[in-house]
Structures are given as C-alpha cells and as structure tokens.
Give the backbone structure.
Amino acid sequence: MATLVFLEHHGDELQKGSLGVLTKAVALGGADAVIIGEGAKGLAAQAGAYGAAKVFACEDAEVAQPVPQPRVDVLAKVVSDGGYDTVLFANSVLAADIAAGLAARLDAGLNWDLVDVELQGGDLVGKRPALQDTVYADVGWTSTPRIALFRAGSFDAQESGGGEPEIVDVSPSYAAHSTSVKLVGQDAEESSGPSIEDAGVIVAGGRGLGAPENFTLAEELAKALGGAVGATRAVVDAGWYPYSAQIGQTGKTVSPKLYVALGISGAIQHKVGMQSSGTIVAINKDANAPIFEFSDFGVVGDVHEIVPKLTELVQQRRGS
Ligand SMILES: Cc1cc2nc3c(=O)[nH]c(=O)nc-3n(C[C@H](O)[C@H](O)[C@H](O)COP(=O)(O)OP(=O)(O)OC[C@H]3O[C@@H](n4cnc5c(N)ncnc54)[C@H](O)[C@@H]3O)c2cc1C
C-alpha cells in the first residue's frame, strides 16, 4: 500500500485532525504527506515527527490562497507521479472540496465520513456510521487510488519519533479553470482556544442555559478544561451562539474525548453529531431528558447552580 496523507495547515500550524489521520496511516504501514500553501516547507519537519517518510511541499503563488482547485492539481500530480494507491484526508470545508475534486480528476472512488480504517486480509476497509450513526457499515473501494475523508476527531495525533523526512518540492502546471477563482476577502472569526473540530474537550450549551449571556458558563468551563464551546441548533437559531459552533445533523459532527452537555435535551438531530464522543457528561434539570439515555455520567440539576461550582473545582484541580 502506498499512502499519501493531505496535511492541512492554517498559519504555521498543521491541523490536529490531519495529523491524526497521518498517525493512523503510519500505523497501517507507513505514509507520505503533502502540505500545500504558504509555509509548507517549514512544516515538513513537523510532519516527519508524526511519521511521514517523505513530505511533498508546494508553496507556489497559485496555492497562496486557501482555495481547493489548485490544490487538486498539486495532489493529482503527486498521486500520479508517485503511484500512490491510497489518499487520506481529515474532513474540513477545504479538505472535503479537494477530496471531491481529486476523485473527479482521477476518476477515483471516495468514501467519506469514515471514522476508522483497517486492513482486512490485505484489503483496505473503512468504517462508516450509517442510519443516523446507529450502525457501522464496512465500506471498500473497487479501484485505485482509494480516497477517504475521515470525520473530525476520528484519530489521535501521536508523534512517532520519526526522523527528518525527505522534502520534495512540487510545482505542477495548473489548469486554467483551477486558477480562475480569486479569494476577494477573508475574515477570521475571533476565537481563543481550540476549534470544535480539534478539541479534545467540548462543553456544549443548549436552551437550558436560559439566555445568550449565560453562555459564559459554558465558555468558562471550556476554558478551565482546555476545550471548545459547542451549541445546539435551538440556540444557534435563536441567535445565542454562532452557527460555526453548532453540533448535530445540520451542524458539525464531533468526537472529542469528553463532551459536557449543559441544558441540552438530547434530540436525535443533536445526538448524531456527538454520540461517538469518548465520555459524555450531561447536566439537565429534567431527570427524563433523552440525553441521559446516552450519557456516561448524568447530573440532574440546574446548570446555573452546578456549572460555576464545577468550573471552580476544575480550576482548583488544574491550578488555573
Ligand atoms: C431537520 C432538523 C435538523 C436539525 N439539526 C440539528 C442540529 O444539527 N443540531 C441540534 O442540536 N439540533 C438540531 N435540530 C433541532 C433538534 O430537534 C432540537 O430541537 C434541538 O437540538 C434542541 O436543542 P436544546 O437541547 O438546546 O433545546 P431543548 O430541546 O429545548 O432542551 C433544553 C433542555 O434544557 C433543560 N433545562 C432547562 N433549564 C435548565 C436548567 N436551568 N438547568 C439544566 N437544564 C435545564 C431542559 O430540561 C431541556 O432538556 C434539528 C431539527 C430538525 C428538524
């Protein structure tokens, strides 16, 4: 198996999700990586620490902006020249567009929303949640290259003690249509701490918080735990919190190690976005709230009484 992993970066940081996919690929038998955009070469050593043997780096002016199509050109060249039969991506808005474009370009099969992958008798088999995450389906590919897109948080990123990788400069010829898109502006959302896609801990708030200003309860607990804040659709629709934090069927799907739900009823549309979290803790004043049916720990009580004390306790324990 010759595996290539797309490593997404923002600024001078490789995204944890894609390093997790690289960790998995290395465990399956080794992998090379590709980094595209400003600062790519400088990040290659980091990819080596996570086990990439060879890192393809492209810093052409055509890929300075985070648009997918020129990246498809880079990947198509690396995959074709290097004879890679497997190309893996961690899901993001950008990665999903690149993976789809690459599948179309190479006439390749793309399995998306996978949460795991393994070798079964020499065949690569992906695991894909189906029927609103109530079952896992084994999925495969009928041709190569096999392209896969993994759900956020599917794998932990672990350094492997790998040495300096071989760094290969890539500069493909770009198709006219690939360079015709120009990004006219970009505004970064003001945020501190990890994004919900990358966070190991998510503290999510629902309508039970009572008012938008009470989201500070979720924010303070998330800060104390070193995590990110998520939200239900009910509060996003009400304008209490931005859509980028929405978790669920029409929001993001996350799998942090710890998910703390504050005043969330546990509707099926929310559940499908977070039920694969490692440990789920729910605080809800209604003992019959559906969320308790799929929580590991449940506290029946008022978030306004419990959360400030919990935050204080976490701060004391962590000395923050
Ligand atoms: C097509 C479709 C797609 C959808 N997509 C999504 C999605 O992506 N994500 C999503 O989240 N929802 C989604 N929904 C909406 C979903 O059905 C629920 O309406 C929503 O998740 C409910 O949000 P909530 O838990 O914040 O609010 P509620 O259901 O109103 O629950 C509030 C909870 O807070 C508890 N509570 C109240 N006060 C307190 C207190 N002081 N202390 C402790 N607990 C308290 C209550 O007991 C209750 O259980 C979708 C719906 C549809 C139809």
